[in-house]
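Thread: Newbie trying to understand structure tokens

Hi all, I'm a second-year student working on a class project, and my supervisor (Dr. K.) asked me to get a predicted structure for one chain before our next meeting. I've only ever worked with sequences, so writing a 3D structure as a token string is new to me. If someone could post the tokens and maybe explain what I'm looking at, I'd be very grateful. Here's the chain:
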Amino acid sequence: MSSLLRGATALLLASSLSGCGLIGELTTQTMTGEEVAKEAETQLRTLPNVVDGEMECPDLEDEVGNEVRCTRTVEGDGVRVEIGVTVEVVEPDEDGNNLAIQVDDEPESVTVLADALESTIEQQFQQQVGRAPESIDCPELPGVVGESVDCALVDQGEDLSIRVTATAVEGTEVSFETEVVE
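---
Reply by user tm_fold:
Sure, no problem. This is what the structure looks like when written as tokens:
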């Protein structure tokens, strides 16, 4: 009789936990943003022409139909590109993968890296003046038409300010103009 009582008590406890919503919390798992990003990156790397990058994602409840927006960052060819990625929980496939990954067609942002700006300005300066500047220091240039940054250039002890302005952005390509600012 005591085993029957224990079984009834366990059933009663399970019923009361279900009423409080605790059973649902015990069966629904949450993937951390780090886990979501790692799995999404693993799946992306199986595709052709995908370069290494870093992904940041929020946490995701592991329930079919739930989705999150992640940001994937890739650096190369003098630019840093951030692109949106949707990660959705789906029914597991034959390999046990239960995340569907969809990468946006267009980047969220493109930034010209400081090293690339400095190199380009140094080459332009050398072509126009016939010598390399003593130093050049630039910040990164946001890939937004009309955005500008000022670079500090030193030539023969003279400090010059070079304004760099983004003139066009097409995909991951950023065109820009430079001018000496007085």
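A couple of things are worth pointing out once you decode it. The longest strand covers residues 158-170. The chain has four helices and twelve strands. Feel free to ask follow-ups in this thread.
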